[in-house]
Amino acid sequence: MFHLHVHIIPRKTGVAMKPPAAEKEKPDVLAEQAKKLAAAIAAE
Question: Who's near 35: CB < 8 A, 6+ residues apart?
Answer without folding.
Answer: none
